[in-house]
Amino acid sequence: MKTTRSIVIGSAGHIDHGKTALVLALTGIDTDRLPEEKRRGITIDLGFASLEMSGSDGLPMRVSFVDVPGHALFIRNMLAGAGCVSAVMLVIAGDEGVMPQTREHLAICGLLGMSDGFTVISKSDLVNDAQLEEVRREIATFLQGTFLGGAQNAIIPVSAKTGVGMAEVRVELAKLAMRARAVESIRPIRLPIDRTFVKKGFGTVVTGTLLSGELRVGQSLLIEPGAKKARVRGLQTHGESEERAAAGTRVAVNLAGVETGEISRGQTLVVPDELSAVDMIDAEVTLLEGTSPLKHRARVHMHAFTSETMAMVALYGNEAVKPGTARLARLKLASPIVLAPGDRFVLRQPLPAGTIGGGRVLDTALVAHEKRAVTRGWLEALAHASPGESLILRVRRRGTSGIRIGVMAREMGFTVAAVRDLVNEALEGGGLVLLHGDLLLAPEAIRQVMQLVLTRAKDAGATGLKRSELESQSAVASEILDAAVEKLATKGILRLQGETIRGAGDANGPGEKDTRERDTRKLLAVAAAYKEAGLAPLAVGEFAQRLRIAAAEMRQLVTLLLRERALIRMGDDDTFIHTDSLKDLVARLASKQGKTLDVAAFKTLTGLTRKHAIPLLELLDRERITRKEGDVRVIL
After folding, report:
1. What is the pTM of this model?
2. What CATH code would you report for 525-635?
3. Which contiguous run of DSSP H or E holds residue 605?
């Protein structure tokens, strides 16, 4: 099946420079849909159209246009459309040249991180050749130093009335789509809503550009801010019904479980527990040349994707931001917005109204009561960090508390799978410590906890330190203490005797030979318990209680069995499966090679509940025994 390449392009420019007429000539769709737009002959709100074509490689492609208003009074609507597009078609009328909104629109596109597009000289039929050449030189000078000033960014004279230049525009659109970067798969589902309405026979419909992830019919989502639950009843991309929609496309989503009056432009469709709205961020703020300095505690309008709100800017360092420079700042938002690190935004001053700058979100998971100097130094490092470096910086910030992978995914605005990939790279380089498959610590943090445990054990002397005493004396989570105790015991620095922790040289414990024999018996007992549990093992703590083994000692035994590959970790939970049980299951699946099965079929096959079936399927995916494709698995 051929894959359709998609790109979403914004048409930007001054009022009455022919943006809507150009889109109509290209697509046959009039994006001015409102009666007021028809009466006044200007674009007031966002308009949408699409063009189906083929690339130079013969593959089909779909160009989606977001036609934005050019009038200064409707700049907030323009921003709602520009925030979600990846490239721009800048339209400049041949009979007027570069105008105020031309400049503001291009500045906004740059602030939003756009890096590609081309320029159209519209209404070329209204000027002679000499005038056309003059305006081309003016535009080329204007574009110098901007992302549209490169050799690959064409300037094309056109006339929507006569058709001159339209073929060249289509060629340039195809080139643009071919150059477009693939949408990152590391980010979760996010669809900023730009329009909502009721469709007879269907109910509530919202539209937007799917920034990341894949939407599927039947999926459960949240509308943020507000945490309104909704289910995807149907999907359409440019009038065609689809079972799923890919990132980077314009999508209409028919929602069940929510009324149109409960939704508005500026809200965002997300998956529960993946992204949420925030009302305070740390960011890098850039001020445009030619504006006034931005003072500490200034109030501005902030625009991000389809959202807008007032914001108070608290500058790190307090001195004003000078035009043409960038500074770190904390933005306190009057209304919450769904934001993640890396997101771009635009800042406008209220009076006189105008765009003054923008910025890039650095952090949304702010640490309470942290000294500003500490936060500033951390942000300076974060601003230039790669994703892997950002992960390590964020883990280090958590100190001896650590952070779970799921929480880290939400903090970074990544999928859990993407964070796990970064974690695996960091583990190979020794930059992180992973406990129980889910809890992340910096190496210096676990060393700090080990030193704490060792100090407490030495202070206790020959009588030893009870595990309960250690917990009560430490402001550290029990599982981190267990890991520190386990590492010290493995190194032979401490000895574990039931619930008692002793220094390796302390007396009052059993002899070395007796200890080894006892540990071997316990190791065999743990392995046997896991093997007996088959495909439905208990959590480590439950096994520890059943076998009457102290939690810290149980962790040490499980770690030894993992090293020997007698046990294999399952999913994100604190559960493991015996290798023999997995081998038996693989043998049962071998006869079904090439076939597919869903969760229900897998539960029937194994007799498992969903609690055990899901992590076991995830394990089979990781071990490349199955491959997940949508809602089913292919048996490899």
Report:
1. 0.75
2. 1.10.10.10
3. helix 599-606
